[in-house]
Amino acid sequence: MSVGAVATRYAQSLIDLAQEKGVVETVYKDMQLFRNTAVENRGLMLALSSPVVRHEKKLGILKGLFQDKVDPVSFAIFRIITQKNRESILDAIADEYIKIYNDYKGIQKATVVTTTPLTAELRQQFSKIVAEATGKTVELEEKVDSKLIGGFVLRVGDRQVDASLRSRLNNLKLQLIG
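and the corresponding structure tokens:
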């Protein structure tokens, strides 16, 4: 079974348990904390993925980092995953939990990449476009990329609208070559 499928099953079980215990929001914040920690500290995921590091040691690392900072429901998944020897997919489980939570709450994440920071008016327009297209509340992430030259790239889920000048120039170049 693929990592994604396994992570989705664990994440779905975790959200079901969190709903039963009334701690969905708390577990969401805990999964964000784990994900951010894993992204900022590459050594954490290397240790959790290492076949050389024993499972008891991995659980000790998770206890030291998270036991006092997360809800017991969240820490329970760390313990279960360690017992099942699947520590290397904890980041994928956290990602899946966040996706399931967003679906549960009707939140759509979108990323817009521009050459300069967005004005409040443009931010509102992008949010409105995504909200109308998806029917969900929008969480807009903004990125600045000076290589775009002009225009924007908007990503919503697995869809992308590339209205950048760089993209248009590349298309023109391909037409001239072909």
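(Above: one complete record from the training split.) The chain has two domains: 3-103, 106-177.
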